[in-house]
Every structure is written in C-alpha cells, then in structure tokens.
UniProtKB/TrEMBL annotation:
GO terms for MF: mRNA binding
The family this protein is said to belong to: Belongs to the PPR family. P subfamily.
Keywords: Repeat
Protein name: Pentacotripeptide-repeat region of PRORP domain-containing protein
Lineage top rank: taxon: Eukaryota
Cross-referenced InterPro entries: Mito_RNA-Proc/Resp (IPR051240), PPR_rpt (IPR002885), TPR-like_helical_dom_sf (IPR011990)
Organism listed in the record: Solanum lycopersicum (Tomato)
Ranges for the PPR repeats: 242-276, 277-311, 312-346, 347-381
TM region(s), chain numbering: none
Amino acid sequence: MARIFCYKNLSIAFQLKRPTTHFHPSSLHSQSSAPIDKEVETLYRIITITQTPEGLKQALKSSQIKLSNDLIDKVLKRVRFSHSNPLQALEFFKYADKRKGFYHTGFSLDTILYVLGRNRKFDKIWEVLVEMKRKDQSLITPRTVQVVLGRVAKVCSVRETVESFWGFKRLLNEFGVDCFNALLRALCQEKSMSDARNVYHRLKYKFRPNNQTFNILLSGWKSSEDAEVFFKEMRDLGVEPDVVSFNCLVDVYCKGREMEKAFRVVEEMREKDITPDVITYTSLIGGLGLVGQPDKARHILKEMREYGCYPDAAAYNAAVRNFCIAKRIGDAYSLMDEMVRNGLSPNATTYNVFLRSFFWINDLKSSWTLYQRMKETGCLPSTQSCMFLIRLSRRHEKVEMALELWDDMMERGFGSYILVSDVLFDLLCDLGKLAEAERCFLQMVNKGQKPSNVSFRRIKVLMELANKQEALKLLSEKMAAFRSSTQLIQHDKVEYEQSS
C-alpha cells in the first residue's frame, strides 16, 4: 500500500501565506424562492449526471442556484449516502470553495473527505487538506482526523495509519490527546483491539490519556477480562470513570452474557450518584435477549421510565430484536407499534431486524409488505435492508420486485448500487432479461458507479448470443472509461509519491 502523505508537498504548502482576516458567512447569497430540498435534488442530479469537471461547472452556472453553506452541506450529505461519483462531488466542493468570500463549513469538509476516503482517493484527500490548511486551518479538527484515519485504517496497515496520523501534526493548531483519541478510535473500529492496545501503550507517554481515551478502548473490548484491566489502569492513573466508562463495562458484560456482573455495575453507578442512562438500559435489554429472557428485557422498558429515563429508538430496537430472535414476530410488531404511540419513528435498524428474520424463513411476502411500509413512512432503507430484499427477490425469481427496488434506489439515492447490482444482474441474466439488465447497467454507470467485472461479463455473453453488437459496444466503452480513470489515478499517485 502506497504512502498516504507527501511531506515534501506539505512543507511547500505551509509556506503559502494565510489571509490575516476573513469571515464565515452563513450564506454567500440569499436563498432562492425554490424550497431548499428541491435545490438539493437539482444539484445532486447535476453531480451524478455530468461526466466532466467542465460539464459540472457549466451545469452549475446554468442552474442559477445561489449557493449557501446549508445548501452545500445538504448536497454533500446526499452524495455521501447515495454513493455517488466522488470526483464529481469533489469538483462541486472546489467550485463552491472558489466563490469570492466563501468558506466551507467543517461539516462539508469532513463529508467530502469521507466520500473520497470511501473510494480510496487518498491523493485527493491530501490535496483538499493542504488547501484547507492554506485557506482556513480552523476547519481541520480532531473530527477531521477521525474521518480520514477511519478510511485509511480500513484499507491500509496499522503502520501506515499511524504514519498518516503523524502527518496531521503540522495541519492542526493543537495536536494533542484529542487527535490521539481519533487514532485509537479508528484502530478500534477498523483494525483489532490488540493493535489499538499496542499503539496506546507505545504513545501514551506522548499524549496524556484522558477519560475519552479509556472510554474508546473500553468500548472496543469483547472480553470482560481485557475491559477490567483497562478499567483498573484508568483508576490507577487517577482518571475517574464517568457514565460512559461504566456503560462500556455494562455492555461488555451483557455481550458476554454475564448479566449478574452487569447488574452489579449498575448498582455501583447508583451508589456513586452516576445515573444510568438510556444506553445503560439498552445494553441490559440486549444482554437479556442473549440469555433468552425477552419478556424481562421488555420489563426494563417500563422500569427505566420509573427512574425518569425514557426509551429511545435504539432501546426499542434491542427489545424488538429479542422477540425476533425468539421467533415471536407478533410481540415484535406490538413493540414497534408501541414505539409509534410513544412518538418514536421506527428507523432502518428497526426494519432490518424484521427483514433479517423474514430472510431466514424465506418470507418474501412479509418482507415486501414491510418495505412498502418503510416507503409510506419515509424511512430510507439501508444497504443491509436492500440486500435482504434483493436476495429474496432473486431466490423467488421476482423480477418486478427487484426492479422496483432498483428504481427506488436510483430515484431516491439509498443503498449501495455496487452490492445490490451484483445480485440484480445475476437474477436478470439467469432469466434472460437482457433489456432490463442493459437499462440497469446504464443507470448505474450514469451515476458514476462501476458495475463489477463479473456482472459485465455475464451481460456481455448474453449480448453476444443475442447479436446486440451496438449495445455491447456502448457498454464496453463505459467499462473502459472506468478502467482508464483508474489507471490515470494510479499514474498520478505514483508521480505524487516520486515527487516526495
């Protein structure tokens, strides 16, 4: 894996003079009369439909939409959750940044970095960071470090992740324990806890660990023994546990089915005048489900109210999951209805609990009914939801349902096109639905998403058998464009590293 940072270019960039004064207007222009949601959709479609930076800039100018921080934040958020073309999203980000007197928000910076990192455009991440250092260093925060290192750690080694971490030292005004915590969080989430522990012990003398440091490490342990060791070290260093620390300990006990220890920790919290919160109770609910006590877990929902703590969607989801695991779907639905009566909206996680159960019992009808309910209530399915639905549709050879799901994804921008398309193309090719496969293929590439080579080969075989040479030529050109783009990026990356 290539190095992520080019320190020579970094040193040169730091010599650029930063403006002595500037301001952060909440809006560069006044909002147009059109509702902002409509403007978000218009800009999102421009990003997904245009294929070149020049085409994007021209389309943005022609739209006559007045850009504001709020609008840009919402557009980039839309791009993030729809897995749209990252390079066109970057061009949109740059286009806004070049407007006279305009400054991005920290949210828009972190969002574009996440989008680029998810697509492994690390060289582009570096370019953005250097530019932000020059224009507005205050936007680069420990949160930014967390976003970037999270994507780096996902595909790079621990050593390279730590090297990237040190690369931020000259990007921030304060490079302290908050950045150290961002590194540990990235390692806990994307690597192993042993990796995080080793890095912690190696660097703990350079950064004074605080409460958050230990909470990050405590939240990652799967074994109670490891968690207890760090809990003891925390106290030995004079760092007092807070409600988050205790919650981590309760959670690890619950996941280990050590419910007696978990309840003892809750009692200790009360003795220390640390009030258990909704996260504490949610862990207990989940743990009781693991030991086969869904009814006792449901009672926790009532008990917590007596202590003045009201269940949120996550607490209800844990209780719903318990009944689904116990194959008591009726009780699970009853809890979901109770959520609604209490003013809580079931979210994608709630529905995924049901969809997983229906998937394992091969119940397409119930899954599809639930999907229609999601659409009616405005709940966008997650990628996991889409995968349950598309796999069931393929299993039952329901082309109409699969295409309805795909069209909804195209229109509303949810789910991973790449993962879902592999299953969809398998279904369409198995049943000889060549016209539908071609349409979905073109929809996908027009969104800037590359179909897998396996899917392309399957469609190619069918087109050759059907003697659809013109259509095959078009699809081949689309795939070649993706390959050329990838080769160009790799070439630029090699040049970038050689320059260092």
